[in-house]
Every structure is written in structure tokens, then in C-alpha cells.
Amino acid sequence: MSSKFEISDDADELNQEIDDTNFPTRSNSISFGVANGNGSTGSLNNGYGPFANRRRSSSIRRTESEMTEEGENGEGGTENGDLSHHQQQQQQQQQDAAMTLDSSHQRNNENGENGTGANGSSVIAPGGLNRARPTPIRTISLSGHEKCTFHHDLELDHKPSTREDLLPLMSKSYRMLLSSLGEDTERQGLLKTPERAAKAMLFFTKGYDQSLEEALNGAVFDEDHDEMVVVKDIEMFSMCEHHLVPFYGKVSIGYLPCKKILGLSKLARIVEIFSRRLQVQERLTKQIAVAVTQAVQPAGVAVIIEGVHMCMVMRGVQKINSKTVTSTMLGVFRDDPKTREEFLTLCNNK
To answer: How wide is the angle at C-alpha 210 spanned by C-alphas 205 and 211, nearest 5°?
Structure first.
């Protein structure tokens, strides 16, 4: 006696056609249904969802019916026997795959998360679908790295080797520039010039990859000293951001400590950090003063820079003897004329 819930042959064929069109057997589709025990409402069925199950049950019924007919009518020809054997193998493979998937789902539910084992490893479902835990989104929110130009992943160091990755593109740009000037970039003297120029530009701008914390390296010391400290005539080389030509000169730094002093070489390193960038001298002067203030919180900071700008010497007005002097006074150096005068006197003494 046939069950009243048994699907008719016509309906079964129609369902199979619909399933084959919209739900391929081996598709990596996603089924969303009633929430499972761990609160998840969706899982990857890899082609073994409700539609695939219905198709398998229909196929099983047809296979059983054919086997019954063959038993009643006797063994068929060699061709029919091979077909029946093939169908039995296919049926067994489908049942094994379904049992494997069911056991995998059961283990996943026991571990509290679909697609992940107890140790957090990925689970490979039938069909080769690797259902691994999604990779976390990368971030650069680590303190001190927010504005790092070349820092793309927390796993990288603050000075990664990615700056060298810029060399091919920069070399190509320099080669294009030389060609635009009418030069033969293949002649011996210019053959490696683009690469050399790219490396030089990276060195001129290496300050972008350096931070104040790295430069100080913990060289801040507690000391009961409140008299002026001056380090003068620190050599400085930088690049004019307006014309991409150098300007150079000397920097003098003074500060009044408040129970903390800074390693003397660190003042020169602070100059190096901010000068090895595309700069204007006015901004450079203030950046150095602010950095010293952040390092030791002194009562005051004074910075004077005397520079020679190639954009005024080798182009434009071409005044080879001109010098530019800028200063920044913070704290008592701005408020107290006597303190400021003492600093200026110490800087002018030879």
C-alpha cells in the first residue's frame, strides 16, 4: 500500500528538474532555517539541504521500484544489470555522504559553533568546502601607529620592509621623468640612475617611518636639575616640499628641565626624525620644540634653525649667500625675556 504522502512520478520529476536548475547537487549554497541548539540560524549545506534530501529519497524509491520489477521479471540483460549495479553504488555513496554530513553537524553543534571544531580548527564538509573561522579584520589602532604611512597590519613591526616595495614604482617614475627630459635611459650613465634616485628619495624621507618613542628609546632620566641645557649647531638636512630640492643648516636647542633630563644624543635624533621629511623650515622648527616638550615636560623649550635653501640658491633669485633663521620659544623662553636672552647669548657664542 502506498503512503498518502508519497510523491507521484510526475511531481517527482518536476521537483527534480526544479532542484537541478535552482539547487545544483554540489553547490555551496546556504540554507537558513530554524535556529539550532547553539543559537545559529544558518549553516552551509554544501548541496545536501532539504531539496537535495528530497531528491535523494525520490531516487531511492525509484531504485527500489526498479529492483522489485527486476526481481519479478527475472534478471535482465547485461546492460540492465550493469545499470542496476551502478545505481546501487550511487545510492550507497549518497547515503554515506549524508551520514558523514549529519555526524559533522552533530559534532559542530556539540562544540557550540557550526563549522569549527573543539580546538578552533576548520571543518571540511563533503565536497571539499573548507568552513574555517573568518579571518579578523586588520586594524592599525595600536597606540602610536594610527598615522603610520606604511603600517598595514598589527603583525608587522613599526618599521616594516614595505618601503622597499615602493622601489619598482618609484624607479619607473624616475625613468619616465628622464625620458621626458629627452634622455636615453638605456645609456650606461643612466642605466641604474632610476633605482639609485628612488633609494636616495627613500633615505631623504626616512623620517616618515620613525617615531618619537623610538628615537628616545627610554633615555629620559630623573635628575634634580633646573638650569638651562643647550645643544647647538646640530647639522640638519631636509627637502623643500615646494621644489623637492634640499635645504640644510644648523639647529640649536635649549630647554629648562623640571626634574627630568633627556639624553643629549636624543636631541640630535629628534632633529633627524623631522628633518628627514618633505618640510618647510618654519614647521620644522616648531615640530622639534613640541617634540622636546612631549619628551621631558620642561619649563620651557627654545629652538633656532639657520638654513640655506637650494630653491633660493640654485634657482629663482639665486642668492647664494642668503640664510634663513627661524625660532620657536615655548614656556619661560617666551614669557621671560631674560631667559630668552640667555639662550640667544649661548647660541651666538663661538
So the answer is: 140
Of 145, 158, 225, 243, the catalytic one is 243
Q: Residues 35-50: pLDDT tens digits?
A: 444 444 444 444 444 4
Residues 6+ apart with CB under 8 A from 330: 289, 290, 293, 300, 301, 302
DSSP structure string for 66-127:
HHHHHHHH----HHHHHHHHHHHHHHHHHHHHHHHHHHHHHHHHHHTSTTB-TTS-BEEETT
Known catalytic membership, residue 309? yes
* Catalytic hit among 69, 164, 223, 241: 241
The CA-atom distances, in angstroms, between 260 and each of 53, 190, 251, 292 are 76, 52, 22, 12
Question: Does the annotation count 311 as an active-site position?
Answer: yes
pLDDT at 166: 87
Mind listing the pLDDT tens digit for each residue in 153-190? 444 444 545 777 889 999 999 999 999 999 999 999 99
For the stretch 118-137, pLDDT in tens is 444 444 444 444 445 544 44
Regarding pTM above 0.85, the answer is no
